[in-house]
Write a structure and sequence with these properties.
The protein has about 290 residues and is α/β, with parallel strands linked by helices. Helices cover about 40% and strands about 20% of the residues. The protein has twelve helices and ten strands. The strands form two sheets. A six-stranded mixed β-sheet has the order 6-7-8-3-9-10. A four-stranded antiparallel β-sheet has the order 2-1-4-5. The protein is globular. The termini are far apart.
Length: about 290
Amino acid sequence: MPIELKSVTHTYSEGSAFQATAIRNVSLTIEDGEFIAVVGHTGSGKSTLVQHLNGLLKPTGGQILIDGEDLNAPGADRRRIRQKVGLVFQYPEYQLFEETVAKDIAFGPKNLGLSEDEIDARVRRAMAHVHLDYDKYAQRSPFELSGGQMRRVAIAGVLAMEPKVLILDEPTAGLDPRGRDRILGMVQELHARGGTTVIMVSHSMDDVARLATRLVVMSKGELVATGTPREIFRQVDMMESIGLGVPEAARLCALLRQRGVKLPDDLYTPEELRDSLLALWKEAHPC
């Protein structure tokens, strides 16, 4: 189910004294099964961009096509299209409200008019996806859980709708390292196992280097670059010029190259850098 943005612009409070253009003339195609990371400094338009992808925001100009269907065309069934694209906001646990975990996750499927058996099956599948044991947690209050567990319940509520595309806006914000690693591992597993298209907004270059198949780089409301992590992170000067960093391994690689170490210019993982340095050492110290 490809998503295509054609010259999309969004201006808040258009025509008023508070008018502000958040994204400008963005064109982008997202193919089935990709893991896209949207990166950019604060205020670059990342969140505004992804909120267009399930119709939460309507563009001021341009088109958004979901599986070839214009999301904002007159007569478009936006409710049906939205069911294909699940959006998880920052701090989604703030939206939990039911008395039990199972009821909260079941809220969306119930609104689809599904049978009780299908709702129960979806709740169980969603809880398994986020690594929450049904027998242990289903009847507990979500407000008795840890912050990381509450976040997983909120994500399960979106997964229970069984979207073809999952959008996550800073999914690890505010979590401790253990909770962060569990959320990222769960998202990686979901993408690898089910072929779900994942679009993740993130500030962590190390996270997106490890997870994403393609990066979308935003700056001042414009799309300034898109490419694989290897293609993007070799452009250290460009990334730093728009207020972004690169993974620590890529930064160290760039510093070593400046000092004359003959390393490839596209290394961005610790493992690649380690192996390249080891190869250079063995070349300089043959047995």
